Amino acid sequence: METSSSLTAVAGNGSVLSVSPIEEDHFALEQLLGETGWPAPAAAPSQLSRTATLTAALVALRRAEYAVAICERDLGDASWKDLLECTRGLMNPPLLIVTSRLADEYLWAEALNLGAHDVLAKPFEPAEVTRVVSLACLRWQRERQPGIRFRPTTLSSRRHSASYLVEGL
């Protein structure tokens, strides 16, 4: 379910896009991030925008810049891998956090190897959600500091900042 006011609002550097066909995921993330003192330190005014499909997520990402996309593993006819691949062409792609009730070592390893920032298991743990989202927002901001441009050396190297080429120093 889309929230049109969120999609049309100008997103700040700390903004998060939740991509899930499961309404309870959006609600849980809003509750957890609100209750635990989020937004991330040093983040611009933040908000959680919602989309239910890959297509809607791509529309939202073209309209506004998001620091983080939190994506359910399965999106019906698409998956988190499709979202990750589609964001590679964006000027400032969001860091991707994958969510799943079946979050195991295999998913975690696959997500990190393909370039996702992290994996969150469901049901969500409040401290873990806050930690992962806050670190992702801070990393996204630091990688975009004026005068420094980060570029991944390979498509699968986004996870490790040591794999980035630094330009403009």
Give a verbal description of the structure.
The chain is globular. It starts with a helix and ends with a strand. It has helices at 4-8, 23-35, 54-63, 80-87, 105-114, 126-142, and strands at residues 16-19, 48-51, 68-72, 95-100, 118-121, 149-152, 164-167. It has a five-stranded parallel sheet with strand order 2-1-3-4-5, with helices on both faces. It is α/β, with parallel strands linked by helices. Mean pLDDT is 78; it is low at 1-13, 40-45 and 153-169. It has a single domain (4-167), classed as Rossmann fold (3-Layer(aba) Sandwich). The relative contact order is 0.16.
User: Count the helices. How many?
Assistant: 6
Can you count the beta strands? 7
- Morphology: globular
Provide mean pLDDT, rounded: 78
CATH superfamily descriptor: Response regulator
Order of helices and strands: HEHEHEHEHEHEE
Number of domains: 1
Instruction: Supply Rg.
Output: 15 Å
- The unreliable regions are 1-13, 40-45, 153-169
Largest sheet: 5 strands, parallel
Distance between the termini: 43 Å
CATH class category label: Alpha Beta
Question: What does this entry show, briefly?
Answer:
With 169 residues, the chain is an alpha/beta fold.
Architecture blueprint of SSEs:
Blueprint: H1 4-8, E1 16-19, H2 23-35, E2 48-51, H3 54-63, E3 68-72, H4 80-87, E4 95-100, H5 105-114, E5 118-121, H6 126-142, E6 149-152, E7 164-167
Parallel strand pairs: 1-2, 1-3, 3-4, 4-5
Antiparallel strand pairs: 6-7
